[in-house]
Amino acid sequence: MRPRIKIYLWLFAVNLFISAFTFGGGYVIVPMVRRFFVVKKRCFSEEELINMASIAQSTPGAIAINLSALAGYRTAGIAGALIGCFAAVIPPLVILTFLSACYNMFISNTVIAAILKGMEAGVAALMVDLITDMCFLIVKKKSFLLSAMIPLSFAANFIFGVNVALILLFCCFLCIIQVFYHRGKRS
């Protein structure tokens, strides 16, 4: 089998698997992408994954599909991005089609409700793992500003109730100022 076709088949299979078994959407997909693309296949680094996750969140659409497209593009170009998107869309489409057809049967089933509660706990654990990894990468950069943003952002939202969008805008503003400050220092 030609090497390009082999990588396309791998991309399709891995994105199909990730999409089928990551419930909760959003950042829940990142640990799975990390395991397959960074740890097992070494398609890109962990820092590149965090950058792609940031881009996936800031672009319109579902984070899971955006990240699948970015990982596919980084691994196999435009064809990889298309394969990643297509494979990421299939499982939710099939599952939602099935669930909508059987909605009345599922809505009152206590076993299904218990399974969904268990999935919530699993999603929470995955998100804590991702946040821990992201914080570790930030602290590893040894930047006081970036390291201080973590607890200050948490406190601003959790304790003082500041809107997350305002916190993000303020943090972006601080980072832009830091970039211009360091550029001016080098010149």
Could you walk me through the main structural features you see in this protein, from its secondary elements to its overall organization?
- Helices cover 84% and strands 0% of the residues.
- The protein has helices at residues 3-21, 29-40, 46-58, 63-101, 103-107, 110-140, 144-158, 164-186.
- Helix 1 (3-21) runs antiparallel to helix 2 (29-40).
- It has 187 residues and is mainly α.
- It starts with a helix and ends with a helix.
- The protein is built from 8 helices and no strands.
- The model has no long low-confidence stretch (mean pLDDT 88).
Oligomer: single chain
The count of helical stretches stands at 8
Strand content: under 5%
The general outline is globular
Order of helices and strands: HHHHHHHH
Largest sheet: none
| SS class | mainly alpha
**Rg, Cα atoms, Å:** 19 Å
Can you give the helix content as a percent range?
A: over 70%
Contiguous runs where pLDDT drops below 50 for at least 5 residues: none
Mean pLDDT: 88
Number of strands: 0
User: How far is it from the N-terminal to the C-terminal residue, by CA?
Assistant: 53 Å
Quick tags:
mainly alpha, 187 residues, globular, 8 helices, 0% strand
